Amino acid sequence: MSYLGAIEAGGTKMICALGREDGSVLESVSIPTTEPARCMPQILEFFQGRGIDALGVGCFGLLDLDRNSQTYGCITTTPKLRWRNYPIMRCLQDALGVPVGIDTDVNAAALAEATWGCSRGLGCSIYITVGTGIGVGIIVDGKPHHGMIHPECGHIPVNRRSDDPMVRGVCPYHGSCLEGLACGPAIESRWGRSPAELADCEAVWALEAYYLGQALCSYIYTISPERIVLGGGVMNQQQLLPLIRAEVNRQLGGYIKGKGLNDLDSYIVSSSLGGRQGIMGCLRLAADALEEVQHGS
Amino acid sequence: MSYLGAIEAGGTKMICALGREDGSVLESVSIPTTEPARCMPQILEFFQGRGIDALGVGCFGLLDLDRNSQTYGCITTTPKLRWRNYPIMRCLQDALGVPVGIDTDVNAAALAEATWGCSRGLGCSIYITVGTGIGVGIIVDGKPHHGMIHPECGHIPVNRRSDDPMVRGVCPYHGSCLEGLACGPAIESRWGRSPAELADCEAVWALEAYYLGQALCSYIYTISPERIVLGGGVMNQQQLLPLIRAEVNRQLGGYIKGKGLNDLDSYIVSSSLGGRQGIMGCLRLAADALEEVQHGS
User: Fold this and answer.
1) pTM score, two decimals?
2) Residues B291 and B259 in one domain
3) DSSP characters for B56-101?
């Protein structure tokens, strides 16, 4: 067994872990996401001298994941100004001297679900986190999908429900894109209380399911995943998942049938990895980076 | 060189062709898409005794493209009742005794663009046809993407423009999905004249570009293609493409930058294969089917 490092680099905290290629986490710490000059030394301190064979990073973005690019492994566009254009992968590689694998935080989680979780054994699946933002990771042919940049389909345009009381969604770039209308802060902004405090308000969750169900239909028509896994803080509202399934069924309008759509209860599911999907995915990225160095890609 | 057959199976006509693996078409006929009992013998008559080595079919759908399915190569859901559940691939294979490759009509066109057209050499690209319907083919890692079923993202939900005079779109399944609001018949239904007759009406094309631009943003966020190729009858309106590019730029809101997005004129383009992208893609499907038989997949 190898000894692997993992960093789940989020907007508020950096979870650093030591673990194995079977996804087991042996030890972890949480470091606040301050600016790089303060945060990176704390991260390096955790890993230095621990003898890791490789490191995997699942990072907020946007990221440059083009291996032929001069800025491969850099954070590019982000509202966190200090992290804009920050070469996070190269800094870690230079300081730790081990192979580093990097992908988006949500692609890492999607990879964990495809490796050990609900999407195990499936060629094409997606993972959606609904929390402070909305992020989507996509697996095609067992690998995280990138394309030109990488999926950012938390920001797709959606059809607003005419009785939505919110005039403009909270996305600083698009206003009323999916994230702008359906992320946790959008719920709080619209109804004046946090999602947890609104647990008993049916109207809140019906509207949330309308938007998330619509997004899932869009992903089903575009990616055609074999399974959809949902995670993130907003999904802790247990009443939400059945409402999303009902909206997907209603909004598909019977156009696509068969396969997973015959059984939405097992097609649209909650993560089975108990919140560890992000960090486990980073361990898988580390294992893949090590494998690539040892055996070529 | 091999001698290949190709069928571009559309809703109104079946284009049957003989050609080569370099995409060259040697001979072709157009057969009206009546019912299978009448149409299939005409198709078989064209190919029988011609000595083709393999056949490629790009077909309207939905299709079952799951090779492990008992109904692989069948048309499944379609408004054309006589073609519903029709085993088109097996019928052709049995009658002609050659390997048959099948995919959606738009995946075939996307494959032709990736092989000989605007998307040559790119790993991830999409082809969109805007005509009687709206169809999208997706190439990932150089291969047509399927996932659970196959892309059907002409039917994604879209945000209606508040001043759109059409009360309900023309999609029989969803009403006001993208296809329902932006296909050729939607334009004709909304404005009372055919797209060609409306060429000089700025309002028509501004609204059309609003919807198509929105869809392209959605595909960019989800698939992150390296190039987007547009074809189909509605795109014959030359004024439309620049308007779509402008809408994409506006609606992305500066959220994703760099790469292709720095030069939308070469990122969002018209097909360069002069309407032959569909049938050429079928020749590529035939060549791939032959290759698979000769050398294993």
Assistant:
1) 0.97
2) no
3) EEEE-S-B---TTSTTTT-B-S-S-GGGTT--HHHHHHHHH-S-EE
